[in-house]
């Protein structure tokens, strides 16, 4: 509340005043202004002409020049044609939008007191100036008053008295034109803010204002009323509610009611739920839900639809059709041609029987029993059975015939539009022909041709030879695979030999004795053959390579250098690119010669990486 905020602010100010001296308090309340500013200008200060005057600008009349010998005939005049801006009528007025942003509660700031200040120190400290008075007897009494009567009012009559008092730091009182307050902190409060009256005594609170009121007995109940609604909350009764013209909500134990406009939902949880949108413009809808009975019903006026669910029974209807289902066995749909639907009927007794027809432009019928299906429309005719099947689509443009128990043995298909024919007597022969290619297959040999694109041959048991516009491939499943696709090649003889090559590198494996990995981007090679290892990589100035006969001998070379080791450093020698010579004896490196400055400079010019010299085992 605003009054509470002001009370806390006044109590804080009182504590500060109690700790400060009277002279400091006088300075905070505002005394006569000190010298300086516009009124304190020295007499010899140059003046400036007004904005609408055309006078010379110079020293004030009668003032002595800083140098009498200087020429003072030159005068500076102001241009009379400068644009003029009228001053605001009230320079101190604060626009409403600025008041809202700065968040102040005060609309008018009272002017400072005017007049001579008087002080007295017994029986309490008192300070008086114009309509202002301050009394202070710490810590028992503090009073601050504005609007006192004065013999010569400076701002006109009448002056409304505004008095604030604090007694023993517990009782606060204020009397003013718009606000009254009596507070015995923290037990009792009585506040008047304009036409808003409130009082609080412990857990009991009451407030009244034009068209509204509040009554609280915390924490038992909270009740209030406004011009367009109200609220009531009672934790003891498990009740909460609030209402207005736009919406309302009420919850009491298991009962709830929620209203938004004309849309109302209510129920007794979890037994019964009911909803009604209250629409009277042709879009009325309602629903009812009874979970214990597995019952749900919904009606919508805009499409005249109804839905009812009672356990496994589902009933749906609208002007075009009605649906009756008993899940998961019985399903029925019936059309209503007299109210805008089509003449149709569909009945399913799962999994034994289905029959349906739709008398529209397609004139569709469907009949199905275990092992038999027949579907017809104006453009298609389909029959499926374990012994004979037939399908015709697009008014006979495609024809399919299949004969055989369970799985087709004889297969015949023709598409007149694309001139494609397919014939098969399984497992003896399969043949297909179209303008795009020809395929035929027997148990021993097969040929598949896509004209101008690819050609594939198959021979028993599993040999495949194919070629297309990108390359070729020969496969003997599941052992050998050889082929090329553009610039990539592969050769596999499982599980012994693998070779994959591309412009970026090559991988060759002859398990388990030979492994080779090459990368063309940096000429790197890693090769393992038995107990030998060879590694190579391109560096600045040439190749860094090394060869190992594990675990005995290792040797290699770097640009302008070489090295060798016996038993990984039992004995060894290295001559690095920078000229460093190192001898190894019993795995201890002994430097024989430092780096060559000339070689180091060359390596620096060529950007060699001194950290990489290969792995010298």
Characterise this structure.
The chain has 617 residues and is mainly beta. Among the domains are: 491-530, no CATH class; 537-617, no CATH class. Helices cover 7% and strands 50% of the residues. The protein contains 4 helices and 52 strands. It has a 52-stranded antiparallel beta sheet, with helices on one face. The two termini are 85 Å apart. Mean pLDDT is 83; it is low at 1-80 and 604-615.
| Main sheet specs | 52 strands, antiparallel
Unreliable spans: 1-80, 604-615
- Strand tally, please? 52
Number of helices: 4
Shape: flat
C-alpha-based Rg, rounded: 53 Å
Helix content range = under 10%
Multimeric state: single chain
Question: In terms of topology, how is this protein built?
Answer:
Blueprint: H1 2-19, H2 22-29, H3 96-102, E1 117-120, E2 125-129, E3 132-137, E4 141-146, E5 162-167, E6 171-175, E7 179-184, E8 188-193, E9 196-201, E10 204-209, E11 212-217, E12 221-226, E13 229-234, E14 239-244, E15 247-252, E16 255-260, E17 263-268, E18 272-276, E19 285-290, E20 295-300, E21 305-310, E22 313-317, E23 321-326, E24 330-335, E25 343-349, E26 353-359, E27 364-369, E28 372-376, E29 381-384, E30 388-393, E31 398-403, E32 410-415, E33 420-425, E34 429-434, E35 437-441, E36 445-450, E37 454-459, E38 463-468, E39 471-476, E40 480-485, E41 488-493, E42 497-502, E43 505-510, E44 514-519, E45 524-529, E46 532-539, E47 542-549, E48 553-558, E49 561-566, E50 571-575, E51 581-585, E52 588-593, H4 597-606
Antiparallel strand pairs: 1-2, 2-3, 3-4, 4-5, 5-6, 6-7, 7-8, 8-9, 9-10, 10-11, 11-12, 12-13, 13-14, 14-15, 15-16, 16-17, 17-18, 18-19, 19-20, 20-21, 21-22, 22-23, 23-24, 24-25, 25-26, 26-27, 27-28, 28-29, 29-30, 30-31, 31-32, 32-33, 33-34, 34-35, 35-36, 36-37, 37-38, 38-39, 39-40, 40-41, ...
């Amino acid at each position: 509340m605003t009054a509470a905020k002001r009370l806390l602010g006044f109590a804080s100010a009182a504590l500060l005043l109690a700790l400060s001296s009277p002279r400091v308090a006088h300075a905070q309340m505002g005394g006569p202004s000190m010298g300086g500013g516009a009124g304190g200008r020295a007499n010899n200060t140059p003046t400036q002409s007004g904005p609408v005057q055309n006078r010379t600008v110079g020293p004030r009349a009668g003032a002595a020049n800083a140098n009498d010998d200087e020429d003072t005939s030159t005068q500076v005049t102001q241009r009379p044609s400068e644009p003029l801006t009228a001053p605001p009528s009230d320079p101190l007025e604060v626009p409403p939008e600025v008041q809202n942003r700065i968040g102040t509660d005060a609309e008018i700031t009272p002017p400072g007191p005017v007049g001579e200040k008087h002080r007295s120190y017994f029986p309490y400290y008192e300070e008086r100036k114009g309509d202002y008075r301050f009394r202070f007897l710490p810590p028992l009494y503090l009073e601050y008053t504005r609007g006192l009567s004065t013999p010569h009012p400076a701002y006109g009559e009448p002056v409304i008295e505004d008095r604030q008092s604090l007694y023993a730091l517990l009782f606060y009182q204020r009397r003013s034109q718009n606000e009254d307050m009596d507070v015995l902190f923290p037990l009792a409060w009585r506040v008047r803010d304009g036409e808003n009256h409130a009082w609080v005594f412990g857990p009991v609170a009451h407030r009244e204002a034009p068209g509204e009121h509040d009554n609280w007995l915390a924490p038992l109940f909270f009740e209030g009323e406004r011009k367009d609604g109200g609220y009531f909350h009672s934790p003891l009764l498990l009740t909460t509610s609030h209402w207005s013209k736009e919406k309302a909500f009420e919850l009491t134990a298991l009962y709830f009611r929620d209203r938004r406009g004309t849309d109302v939902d209510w129920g007794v949880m979890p037994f019964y739920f009911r909803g009604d949108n209250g629409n009277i413009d042709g879009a009325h809808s309602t629903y009812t839900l009874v979970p214990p009975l597995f019952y749900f019903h919904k009606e919508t006026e805009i499409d005249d639809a109804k839905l009812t669910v009672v356990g496994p029974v589902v009933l749906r209807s609208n002007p075009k059709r009605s649906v009756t289902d008993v899940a998961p066995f019985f399903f029925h749909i019936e059309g209503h041609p007299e109210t805008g639907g089509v003449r149709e009927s569909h009945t399913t007794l799962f999994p034994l029987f289905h029959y349906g027809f739709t008398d529209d432009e397609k004139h569709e019928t469907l009949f199905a029993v275990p092992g038999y299906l027949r579907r017809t429309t104006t453009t298609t005719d389909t029959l499926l059975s374990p012994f004979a099947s037939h399908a015709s689509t697009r008014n006979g443009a495609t024809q399919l015939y299949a004969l055989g128990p369970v799985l087709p043995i004889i297969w015949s298909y023709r598409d007149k539009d694309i001139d494609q024919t397919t014939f098969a007597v399984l497992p003896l022969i399969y043949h297909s022909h179209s303008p795009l290619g020809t395929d035929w297959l027997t148990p021993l040999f097969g040929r598949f041709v896509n004209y101008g694109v690819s050609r594939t041959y198959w021979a028993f048991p599993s040999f495949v030879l194919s070629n297309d516009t990108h390359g070729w491939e020969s496969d003997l499943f599941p052992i050998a695979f050889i082929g090329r696709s553009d610039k990539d090649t592969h050769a596999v003889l499982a599980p012994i030999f693998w070779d994959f090559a591309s412009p970026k590198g090559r991988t060759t494996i002859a398990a388990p004795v030979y492994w080779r990995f090459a990368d063309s981007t940096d000429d790197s090679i890693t090769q393992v053959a038995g107990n030998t290892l060879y590694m190579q990589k391109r560096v600045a100035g040439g190749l860094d390579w090394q060869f190992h006969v594990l675990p005995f001998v290792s040797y290699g070379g770097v640009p302008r250098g070489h090295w060798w080791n016996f038993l990984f450093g039992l004995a060894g020698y290295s001559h690095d690119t920078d000229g460093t010579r190192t001898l190894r004896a019993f795995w201890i490196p002994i430097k024989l010669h430092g780096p060559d400055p000339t070689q180091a400079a060359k390596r620096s010019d060529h950007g060699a990486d001194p950290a990489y010299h290969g792995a010298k085992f």
